[in-house]
Amino acid sequence: MKLLHIAPAIAGLLLLLNGCGDSAADTRAADTKAIKDIETQWNADFKAKDVDKLDAHYTADAVLMSPGAPAASTDDARKALIKAITADPAGSLSFQATSVEVSKSGDIAATRGTYTMTMTDPSTKKAINDHGSYVTVYKKQADGSWKAFSDINVSDVPPQAAPVATKTKKAPAKKKRR
Predict the structure, then answer these.
(1) In a domain, 69, yes or no
(2) Is 162 among the domain residues?
(3) What digits encode the pLDDT tens for the residues 156-167?
């Protein structure tokens, strides 16, 4: 008889636990679209060379890693790197995601894609073209917006070879007299 009373209690508990499980709606499709829209706007902000709008795409603790520059892990360092890119008269950047992945929990997302960039070579003062790949990791903010907290790009262009230093002959060392 006791079993008859326990079985409904267990069934009720299982239903309650099942209902408390993953009750959040799957928003990955909407989040994927939001991130694609963000990257479209980000490209427009680069075209406009708007430093403040570009910096606003990052969280306060974001890290921006770009070839030839130290990792920019503070707000000031990120802004300085962004200013350097946007201040270059030949400077341009465009990127296109080939993959957008949003976590099932809906709080983290990542994009992978390709970029093209033009900048002025500091030594030759000529425009150089770069292209490569990137990964950007996003965090969903408390207000539901997405911001990048890890952004890295890797150039496909091999680094230029350093100029070969010419050897100079050293004068023979003088012998000490005793």
Answers:
(1) yes
(2) no
(3) 998 776 666 655
